[in-house]
Amino acid sequence: MHIEHFTPEIFGTFWLRGILFVVFFVASLFLIGKNSSKKTQLYLLYGMGIYQLISSIGLDLDRIINGSFLLSSHLPLQMCGITTYLSGIIVFYRKQFIFEFLYFWGLAGFIHSVLTPEFTTEVNTFTIINYYVSHSLIFVIPVWLMLMMDMRLKIGSWWTNFLYTQPILVFIMIVNWLVGGNYMYLAEAPLAENPLIFTRVWPWYILTFEFLTIPHFLLFYYFGKKSSTNKA
Predict the structure, then answer these.
(1) What is each CA distance from 83 to 76, 78, 195, in whole angstroms?
(2) What is the 3-state secondary structure (H, E, C) of the chain?
(3) Nearest to residue 177, comparing CAs of 60, 79, 72?
(4) How far apart are CA 46 and CA 40, in angstroms?
(5) Which pTM was predicted?
(6) What gap in Å lies between CA 215 and CA 219, rounded to an integer?
(7) Cα distance between residue 120 and residue 105, in whole Å
(8) 51 against 67, higher pLDDT
(9) Do 189 and 197 touch, CB atoms closer than 8 A?
């Protein structure tokens, strides 16, 4: 049994509302943070992390209680699922390797999940709002840590995080094979209308994603280092 995926029409009404919500939500958070004291910035960060953890754990517990939890669909093994949990953990456990992993993959997940959304859970008002809020926060939290909490990227972190990701992909491919899942879209290409999906033939689309990850990480690394230099 699998959950039917929902992919909104790009440039359709649903898609536009999602984009507008994200722009307003993200801009509001940074505007409030910029004009707040360090103590308030920290409390806001705690609030964002708590939301990420409670919403993720709560959804899974609800599915387990009502008997709808599926190993093939509901394990937190999509990249956005992993970074959602990490964005909650790093608020209270600030380790450099978690910050860098969250920064690179959070930004990538945020951009593509908002521009080409694909809902892999039951679609209702709560899950729609939570989708856009949680995906916004996997972008906001690492950038917040960088701009307001003085966390920095290490030299060459774009490359080391790309390498660290490879064994994770192998592990998730094994999980997919065991439970019949499609976590991180390693069994089948995503349905979303993403222009970067040049082919949907396995495994070539995976190799394409791997190749395209490098310019993504380089771009994020450039802006991350530039923002750190400007603050200094």
Answers:
(1) 9, 9, 23
(2) CCCCCECCCCCCHHHHHHHHHHHHHHHHHHHHHHCCCHHHHHHHHHHHHHHHHHHHHHHHHHHHHHCCCCCCCCCCCCHHHHHHHHHHHHHHCCCHHHHHHHHHHHHHHHHHHHHCCCECCCCCHHHHHHHHHHHHHHHHHHHHHHHHCCCCCCCCHHHHHHHHHHHHHHHHHHHHHHHCCCHHHCCCCCCCCCCCCCCCCCCHHHHHHHHHHHHHHHHHHHHHHHHHHHHC
(3) 72
(4) 10
(5) 0.91
(6) 6
(7) 19
(8) 51
(9) yes
131 contacts: CB under 8 Å, gap ≥ 6? 113, 117, 119, 121
Rounded to the nearest integer, the mean pLDDT of the chain is: 91
Q: What is the spatial distance between Cα 182 and Cα 176, in angstroms, rounded to a whole number?
A: 6
Q: What's the pLDDT tens digit per position in 135-148? A: 999 999 999 999 99
> What are residue 159's phi and psi, to 5 degrees?
-80, -45
Residue with tokens 């192998």: 170
CA–CA gap between residue 192 and residue 116 (Å, rounded) = 6
Contact 74, 2 (CB under 8 A): no
226 phi/psi in degrees, rounded to 5: -65, -45
- Length of the chain equals 232
Beta carbons within 10 angstroms of residue 175's beta carbon: 17
Question: If DSSP states are collapsed to H, E and C, what string results for 30-91?
Answer: HHHHHCCCHHHHHHHHHHHHHHHHHHHHHHHHHHHHHCCCCCCCCCCCCHHHHHHHHHHHHH
Nearest partner of 141 among 230, 231, 48, judged by Cα: 48
One-letter amino acid at 152 equals R
